[in-house]
Amino acid sequence: MTDLYQSQRAMRQMRRQAMQRGVVAILDVGSSKISCLVLRFDGATRLSEDNSIGSLAGQSGFRVIGAATTRSRGVSFGEISAMQETERAIRTAVQAAQKMAEVRVDHVIACFAGAMPRSYGLDATVELQGQEVTENEIARVLAACEVPEYGAGREVLHAQPVNFALDNRSGLEDPRGQMGQELSVDMHMLTVEAMAIQNLVRCVQRCDLELAGIASSAYVSGISALVEDEQELGAACIDMGGGTTSVSIFMKKHMIYADAVRMGGDHITSDISMGLGVPTATAERIKTMSGGVHATGADDREMIDIGGETGDWERDRRRVSRAELIGIMRPRVEEILEEVRVRLDAAGFDHLPSQQIVLTGGSSQILGLDGLASRILGQQVRLGRPMRVHGLPQAVTGPGFASAVGLCLFAAHPQDEWWDFEAPVDRMAGGSMRRVVRWFRDNW
After folding, report:
1. Residues 6+ apart with CB under 8 A from 112
2. What pLDDT was estimated at residue 49?
3. Could you say which architecture CATH assigns to the domain 118-192+427-443?
4. Between vectors from CA 271 to CA 267 and to CA 273, what angle results, nearest 5°?
5. pTM of the model
């Protein structure tokens, strides 16, 4: 825990250096594509870091000056499985983005999905004896949180204070400067498999780049795809990627839960490939051009040219009905959504005052998906695109770039995490696990 605490602090320091230089790269390492955006920060953002605890402070202060995306290699289920292939793909994306930006980048902030995320809700209370709340008291109450035994081979990726209470006044974003007898905090902690982080760090270093920050895709997708009211009142973001489907729940502008389903768009493509006996590339094209999850009578008559290059004329000129294609796709989509529902139920999502669900990610564009999701998840569902940021090329404004755009916002205005405070190191151990959702049910 202490090693991670120090390495996270070192990354924050590196991020500040990158901001002072004015340029940083954003790297979204996904199972189907690797995206790189180069950001330029203006002087105001570099010089005055927002000093309040909590919510993301707007999206001003930077513009995108370079963007590139390349097909992912060596990544499965959101985790690096072949180091050299991933390294090549990252180099390709970063070099192309640098070329467009006409600037060299040394620091990157990266995000990834998968790695078996697990959420924990921690809380603590300290006595103040009527004194003013300062940085030291914040550090003291955070250090007083009992960290659960989250298991060997796992590391803390995010640890954010999501709610402060002073005496009996709950729901405070930043209690500094106020007086009271007792300060309490609720904190959300997200752990992932350590090997996934270590492989990503190693891969970025092999590309001669410095890692200035690392985030969960589930978290940054929610930042960009949920509108402010949804982040405030309670909403879930379902990011359907290639290898994984990330789930995050936001409340009071903070992520309070995250998980992932180890299935995504690539599994749907694979089903089409096997079901129709066509290469993966053909299956992907058919899915994108003609796919869907809701068949009507007209789909029995609508024929799709499968096409092929096997040299076997009879086989290459086959056609299938769209209804047959939907029949292959729908069971897998239903399976993914059922798994998502299990995650939302486990988190106690139905206890939130608002239960909006936002679907984003490349696979969210399958025709009819929102209607099917609404039926399976039993909530209001809308399709979400990443919010606009300055200079973003049209090609990277679709749902497939929600995590990359969210990572830009995270880079410009990171929320406070445990390691931003000078916490007493000897407190970081042991303790009991608490249910993640208890506090927002009780407090809000």
Report:
1. 29, 30, 78, 79, 196, 200, 214, 216, 217
2. 47
3. 2-Layer Sandwich (3.30)
4. 110
5. 0.89
